[in-house]
Fold:
Amino acid sequence: MPWSNQGGGPWGSGKGPWGSGPQSSGPTPPDLEELLRRSQDKLRTVLPGGSFGGRGFALIALAVLALWGFSGFFRVEPDELGVVLRFGKYVRDVQPGLNYHLPYPIESALTPKALRVNKIDVGMRLVEDIRRGTTMRDVPEESLMLTGDENIVDVDFSVFWLVKPGGVSDYLFNIQNPEGTVKAVAESAMREVIGRSQIQPILTGARQTIEGGVQDLMQRTLDHYGAGVQITQVQLQKVDPPAQVIDAFRDVQAARIDAERAQNEAQTYANRVVPEARGRVAQITQAAEAYREQTVAEATGQASRFLKIYDQYKNAPEVTRQRMYLETMERLFGGTDKIIVDSSKAGGTGVVPYLPLNELRPQTQTPQTGGSK
Structure:
């Protein structure tokens, strides 16, 4: 070759393109046959009788077989579930604790964290800062979404998930990146639910409805994929308008809150006044009913009395008329001092003497305060 006479080629003597080549003065590698011979000599000293015969091979084979059998024991932690594979094919699940499978390469075991609740944040990231500590950083490309009334809203949320009971094999073999799959499905489901909603309910009182809708949609999608993942909770962390218009949205929201408070106060006043008015109406109605009953009863009594007097009058008109006249006079002059004048007597004074019964009563003498004269 052209550089064969230049002492080691274009990179210099004894050097290659990545530095110095092998040096002849370095230590030589050990001889494999020498190592085998030394191992056999040491084994002869350990074996009884110093001979490496059939019994020695049997003991070695038995020890190797025992070690191979014991290699099938494995431990599953409390937050894990074990999956046993036989020649790479799923066979069974095992629970936490000490378990056993046929030694490798017949069977092998996988122990994913299937009982641990995992959390994925969408639209935000936890950032470790030496000066400020742990801070939350917003990710607009994940959090900005379009609502059904063509408004933009900033949504940060968290998804809690774990491996579905009985779905460990699906979790291991049907999806390659479980966390990435769950995050992609969560973001897609949230965008779909937000796209069907109006911005005002999203910002005020529809949080629980949105969380439930996203959770149901995510679970249906993951079940369709056969992911073996169960969504336990979707939690909205922040729902705000974009930063450029957040002040205007907050003013509108405050005005709506004031309007709702005024409506609640008016409703409270109505709830207090209307029962009072109904009570007064009932009171007036009951008083009118009582007055009506009383008037009717009195009129009925007077009519009955009149009818009875009329019956007596028909039997004896003169006597009844005289008795009625006397009773009327008695009622009129019963409480007054009377002087009876009879003008029917001819030549008389017309004064009828009567016995003054009131004057015959003993009068109480008042004691005199002054001296007697």
Confidence is low (pLDDT under 50) at residues 1-27. Residues 267-326 form one domain. The CA atoms of residues 72 and 103 lie 4 Å apart. The first strand starts at residue 15 and ends at 16.
